[in-house]
Design goal:
The chain is globular and about 30 Å long. With 74 residues, the chain is mainly β. The chain has one domain. The chain has one helix and four strands; from the N terminus they run ββββα. The two termini are 12 Å apart. The structure holds zinc ion.
């Protein structure tokens, strides 16, 4: 599986940058990357199984349903 993170235009006052993913050439899913010191990645909607991640698993960057790991990209 080839995965790329695509950053989206996000208002400057936000404390995070919104992102989407490209997995094997297909764009989908959603998440965010924290700005400043807090650069952790959150996975909100999985680009592989298209499901909304459980809230408690968002900050791990890993999909609770299919184990897709958003931290494994470039
Ligand atoms: Zn998934």
């Amino acid at each position: 599986m080839k995965m790329k993170i695509i950053t989206l235009a996000t208002p400057a006052e936000y404390d995070h940058t919104e992102i989407t993913f490209e997995v094997d050439g297909r764009i989908g899913g959603s998440g965010f990357i924290g700005k400043g010191k807090d650069q952790r990645l959150g996975l909100i909607k999985c680009p592989v199984c298209q499901k909304e991640n459980y809230a408690v698993s968002v900050s791990s960057g890993v999909c609770v349903f299919c184990d897709f790991n958003a931290n494994a990209g470039e």
